[in-house]
From TrEMBL:
It comes from the Bacteria. CDD domains: AcNei1_N (cd08970). SMART domains: Fapy_DNA_glyco (SM00898), H2TH (SM01232). It comes from Microbacterium ulmi. Gene3D superfamilies: 1.10.8.50, MutM-like, N-terminal. PROSITE patterns: FPG_CAT, ZF_FPG_2. It is an enzyme of class 4 (lyase). Belongs to the FPG family. Its cofactor is Zn(2+). Residues 300-334 form the FPG-type domain. This is DNA-(apurinic or apyrimidinic site) lyase.
């Protein structure tokens, strides 16, 4: 399931490439034909991400709400302008994924073909595949000079400007909303450290968790409690806090609950900056680069079932909790 850092990165890409431009909208697949016709010819006015959802505003008080869910993806083609506010840990600008670009000699690529350190040029004709998870796959190679690019697969929505194309595939939600409907949707979501005031968000999160009998593992995944946390960040945050995932929220000491919120704020910023869910601290430069290249080297417990805990050596366990896999150390998190 997607995690919030990717949605914020996608929103920033929209801000650089789509906002302020008139958009030609279509639904090649046909499932969003009516909605596409309503935004066709309008200018994109603003974009915002809250947790795992993105809201794209069009002139005339019309908003597009997109939740990519498990299988959704945005594909950008054409002139891809890198957001200067997203910098990687070595000071360079970051980009979620690059396909068909020229990479610098020191590029670090992970198994999904994602370059975690370097950015693509701006502007440059290219194609970028942006999913909400690290299991990203590329698109078939195509002629970068062909414009607009051919439709590949089941495209729910195509947003096309004079220089950039954004294709949406397989979302859980793709709908138009009024401003009041957007406000109502966001009101149901828990605080997001990149959207809400950090102190107010901490108080809201702490208050909710401390009165719930539900396990902290389930609460962290509840988007009504806190926005953006998915399976990876959930497992990693609980390990970093040395917290048993089955502890009821109301039994978690207040200082630990507050620590979870602050840790989420920190990890989310790192995720947006690097494009990776890096959850390990104090790595040497060589270990950091290795972790950027391989997902299994940047997590404490996630996806490590049966392997020794990096701290105590106890075998990491995996169990099913509410149909999702939960990884944790039965010793460090006893």
């Amino acid at each position: 399931m997607p995690e919030g850092h990717s949605v914020h990165r996608i929103a920033r890409q929209f801000d650089r490439n789509i906002v302020g431009r008139t958009v030609a909208a279509s639904s090649p697949q046909g499932r969003f034909a009516e909605g596409a016709s309503l935004i066709d010819g309008r200018a994109a006015a603003s974009v915002r991400a809250v947790g795992k959802q993105m809201f794209l505003e069009f002139e005339g008080d019309l908003w597009l709400r997109v939740h990519l869910g498990m299988y959704g993806a945005w594909d950008f083609a054409g002139e891809i302008l890198v957001d200067p506010t997203i910098a990687s840990a070595n000071g360079r600008m970051g980009q979620t994924n690059q396909r068909g670009t020229f990479l610098e000699d020191d590029a670090v690529m992970d198994a999904a073909g994602e370059n975690s350190l370097t950015s693509i040029g701006a502007p440059r004709r290219t194609r970028v595949h942006v999913r909400m998870s690290e299991q990203t796959t590329g698109l078939p190679d195509e002629d970068p000079g062909e414009w607009p690019p051919p439709v590949v697969g089941q495209v729910r929505l195509r947003l096309l400007t004079d220089a950039t194309c954004a294709d949406l595939r397989g979302p859980t939600a793709c709908e138009l909303q009024t401003p009041d409907e957007v406000a109502a949707t966001i009101a149901k979501l828990g605080p997001d450290p990149l959207v809400d005031d950090l102190a107010e968000g901490e108080e809201r999160f702490t208050s909710v968790v401390r009165r719930k009998p539900t396990s902290i593992a389930l609460l962290l995944m509840d988007q009504g409690v806190v926005s953006g946390i998915g399976n990876v960040y959930r497992a990693e945050m609980l390990f970093r806090a040395r917290l048993n995932p089955h502890t009821p929220g109301r039994e978690v000491p207040e200082e630990i609950v507050r620590g979870l919120w602050r840790d989420w704020a920190r990890l989310l910023r790192i995720g947006v900056e690097t494009g990776q869910m890096m959850t390990m601290d104090d790595l040497s430069p060589d270990d950091w680069r290795a972790a950027m290249a391989h997902r299994d080297d940047r997590h404490w417990v996630y996806h490590r079932a049966g392997l020794p805990c990096r701290v105590c050596g106890t075998a990491i366990v995996v169990e099913e909790l509410a149909t999702r896999k939960l990884y944790w150390c039965p010793s460090c998190q006893a």
